[in-house]
Amino acid sequence: MLILVTYDVNTETAAGRKRLRKVAKACVNHGQRVQNSVFECLLDAAQYTFFKAELTKLIDPATDSLRFYKLGNSYQTKVEHVGCSPQWKQDGVLLI
Fold first, then answer.
1. What one-character-per-residue DSSP string does 55-73 give?
2. Is the pTM of this model over 0.85?
3. CA dihedral of 28, 29, 30, 35, whole degrees rounded to 10
């Protein structure tokens, strides 16, 4: 299923900047960045549960926030893109 993850991490302190780097790194490991603090992640239910728990542990809920949008398996009909294309298709083959 396609999960859209957005985050807002307070970076007024050094600890906040460190949390931001950790959250961004975790998101890069699970999906594709589509905006500065927005990631598209193709995950199954178990991966989503693990990923959500990982991010929840990284933030400070008093000053930071996470949003998860579950777009499901037929996300192609729910996402409309205008402008510069992403680097690669989420469900495409990536050869390295």
1. HHHHS-TTT-EEEEEEEES
2. no
3. 0
